[in-house]
Amino acid sequence: MSVLKMAAAVALALGAVSAQAQVSDGVVKIGVLNDMSSLYADVGGPGSVVAAKMAVEDYIKATKSKLKVEILSADHQNKPDVGSQIARQWFDVDHVDAIVDIPNSGVALAVSAVAREKGKANLNTGAASSDLTGKACSPNTVHWLYDTWMLAHGTGSAIVKTGGDTWFFLTSDYAFGHALERDTSEVVKANGGKVLGAVRHPINTQDFSSFLLQAQASKAKVIGLANAGADTTNSIKQAAEFGIVKGGQSLAGLLVFLSDVHALGLQTAQGLIFTETFYWDLNDQTRAWSKRFAAANGGKYPTMDHAGVYAVILHYLKAVEAIKSDDGTKAVAEMKKLPTDDPLFGKGTIRADGRKIHPAYLFEVKKPSESKGAYDYYKLRATIPADQAFRPLKDGGCELVK
Amino acid sequence: MTEIFGIPTQALFGQLLIGLINGSFYALLSLGLAVIFGLLNIINFTHGAQYMLGAFCAYLLLNKTGVGYWWSLLLAPLIVGALGMLIERLMLKRLYKLDHLYGLLLTFGLALVIQGVFRNEYGTSGQPYAMPAELAGGRNLGFMFLPNYRAWVIATSVAVCLGTWFVIEKTKLGSYLRAATENPALVQAFGINVPRMITLTYGFGAALAAFAGVMAAPIYQVNPQMGADLIIVVFAVVVIGGMGSIMGSIVTGFSLGIIEGLTKVFYPEASNTVIFVIMAIVLAVRPAGLFGAQK
Questions:
Q1: Average pLDDT, stretch B199-217?
Q2: Which of A115, A129, A357, B57 could tie A105 with a disulfide, CB 3.0–4.6 Å?
Q3: What residues in B contact A213, CB-CB < 8 Å?
Q4: Does residue A119 sit in helix, strand or coil?
Q5: Which residues of B touch A50 (CB under 8 A)?
Q6: How far apart are CA A87 and CA A122, in angstroms?
Q7: Chain A nearest CA to B39, separation (Å)
Q8: Longest Cα pair distance anywhere in chain A, in angstroms?
């Protein structure tokens, strides 16, 4: 497909020209790097840029800060090579100081390595792999929002405890899916359950019927969806078509975002149980912020990733202001030192391994009759306190923890 | 229970059937591409976008005007076909004298524009489209649960494919079309309006894509990206079948669906590459494709 390559090269070149036009020192430059056009684009995508700009405006308005902040953005196309190439160009040519969002664990791990090499701040909200603060941890990484350990423990243990003790996984075949399957399997086994099998599907698959048939044949009580975005919505939609839930098996969406539920509709999504760390309708502050966000984002309400991007940038700017430098390594060290406090996640901390600590919430999707309208989708089933929501510091195998 | 390579035969039947269903989409889409390439010599990269437009037409007809699935099955191809003819008249027509590559670039660019517009408006996670009530549910075949809708997809796809093949290869109209590709000047001399025939053919190809899009809407999310993901596979199908060969693309579409389905059982990780591996092998052994004639 040489034409595709050509088009990609042109697109990259155009991106480079527009980014280069803003080179200058004395400016804090933050790059939003995510999937702008494919299966994860509604989870982060252009909405993350909206959130980033809101964070900068709000910070400067609230603190009357003299900082000059610029936001750049780019599409990593879910390809680790494209992602790390953009990161290199941003750091080397465009003097970008921090990269945020970076969903897709494969890309996130690659960009984390580049940020470490260049001494820049890597503020991850979008990716799930718990390895980012485990064996692949870095003094330049803050992992703000959620991870596979949290998802596995929040959702997995809730389901095993209600009788779902045999599992079969539909796993997205890259770093994220593997980590999520691994972490969830551990939880299932630790709670006395059994894993009967797994099938690994390529990322961005349209038709899941073959995989669902294999899951059906396994006779497992629970089919764990270790995938995300459009892969998850397609799995759920087609599972309904093949009568899987009617046949007595249940689906566990291990990573579900508000945009996925919106895309499925409540008729199909009702009853799903999953864990998130943010929902727009949690309290007055989240509601107020989400209304502002939706107004700036074409009426679409924020996912937890959008909230994460907003909050991590607020905290990053506080740290930069405190040390009067945008040196990435120092800024991340300062972010770990300062307690976090923002309207969306409340008070929290960032641990030595880069893990941000806050509560997690077990949600259930409402029935159509319970919902008052668009985006009124979740019921809170349980709150997992901050000190239990994430993997204990000593268990991660991070070299920064002594 | 008997087993083949460790898979119970019952489960294998199920997977073969699933492969056949996916093959019906490949066949329907590659058929449209083959018609357009075979008769117009245009490599129509807009095909995926036209497939997506078909699905969105059905979605918009339902949500804005309350027109249901069955009417959409007729209306969406007509609308997208008409749009296709407009594209042919206004743009593609100017490129016939140039190299294939120009048509390819134009249609590729158009596809990016159309997809971009829809992505901007609807995002990427897709819109739900409910199954028509008449085809909801399914039956237990003993070896698998077959949703009624998927059975409908296979039956319709086979009928449309064979119908198209019949019209092009066995009727008088088809013979004019084929003659017009070989020697347009001569056919024109016989009093046949060749440019109009070409416009209608492109419209028909686009309508086929839209038809497949409406068929796909209840199974997959109606998503701006749905065509972009599929078009590359479908191109591989056309290349394997032999560019422009109608029967070739139908047979290859169905058989590659089955091969891909089996890959999903034996080595799922490779399921999105297996078609390209086959394409590479076929190109090495038979550069004109399995059913293509060497020109």
A1: 94
A2: A129
A3: 11, 14-15, 18, 144
A4: coil
A5: none
A6: 10
A7: 23
A8: 62
The CATH code of the domain at A149-276+360-389 is: 3.40.50.2300
Using 50, 70 and 90 to split pLDDT, how confident is the model at A5? low
Apex CA B98: angle with CA B92 and CA B102, to 5°? 60
Tell me the residue range of the domain where B144 lies. 27-285
**Residue pair A74/A88 in contact by the 8 Å Cβ criterion:** no
Q: Which amino acid is at B149?
A: Y
Check residue A21 and give its pLDDT: 31
Q: Give the chain A residue whose CA is nearest to the CA of B273.
A: A202
Angle at A318 between CA A312 and CA A319, to 5 degrees: 90
Establish whether domains A18-146+282-358 and A149-276+360-389 are of one fold.
yes
Cβ atoms of A249 and A197 closer than 8 Å:
no
Residue listed under structure tokens 């053919």: B201
**Best residue of A209, A219, A231, A235 to probe chain B, by most B CBs closer than 10 Å:** A209
How many domains does chain B fold into? Answer: 1
Pick the CATH number of A18-146+282-358 from 3.40.50.300, 1.20.120.80, 3.40.50.10190, 3.40.50.2300: 3.40.50.2300
Which helix or strand (DSSP H or E) is residue B226 part of? helix B226-241
Q: What is the pLDDT of residue A22?
A: 35
| Chain-chain contact of B219 with A238 (C-beta, under 8 angstroms) | yes
CATH number, residue B56: 1.10.3470
Provide the pairing of β-strand A28-34 with A69-75. parallel
Residue B10 lies in a domain: no
- Helices B9-40 and B194-216: angle between axes, nearest 10 degrees: 160
Strands A98-101 vs A28-34: parallel, antiparallel or unpaired: parallel
List residues of chain B with CB under 8 Å from any CB of chain A: 8, 11, 14-15, 18-19, 21-22, 45, 104-105, 108, 112, 119, 123-128, 130-131, 138, 144-145, 147, 149-150, 219-221, 223, 225-226, 229-230, 232, 261, 264-265, 268-269, 271-273
Which of B62, B100, B106, B125 to mutate against chain A (most A CBs within 10 Å)?
A: B125
CA-based torsion, A239, A241, A242, A246: positive or negative: positive
Across A4-23, average pLDDT: 43
Domain extent listing, chain A: 18-146+282-358, 149-276+360-389
**Residue A38 corresponds to which amino acid?**
S
Question: Are B229 and A41 an interchain contact pair (Cβ–Cβ within 8 Å)?
Answer: no
**A234–B127 CB contact, under 8 Å:** no
Please name the member of A39, A202, A242 whose beta carbon is closest to the beta carbon of B269. Answer: A202
Q: Please answer whether residues A273 and B179 qualify as being in contact, where contact means their C-beta atoms are separated by less than 8 angstroms.
A: no
Alpha carbon of residue B128 to chain centroid: 21
One-letter amino acid of A271: G
Phi and psi (nearest 5°) for A280? Answer: -60, -30
Give CA–CA dist B10/A13, Å, rounded: 53
Per-residue model confidence (pLDDT) at position A23: 29
- Phi, psi at A35, each rounded to 5°: -85, 110
CB pairs < 8 Å spanning A and B = 120
pLDDT for residue B135 is more than 50: yes
Q: What's the pTM? A: 0.86
C-beta atoms of B144 and A213 within 8 A: yes
- Searching chain A, which residue's CA lies closest to the CA of residue B264? A210
Pick from B229, B265, B269: CB nearest A214? B265
DSSP state of A399: T
Residue B22 belongs to some domain of the structure: no
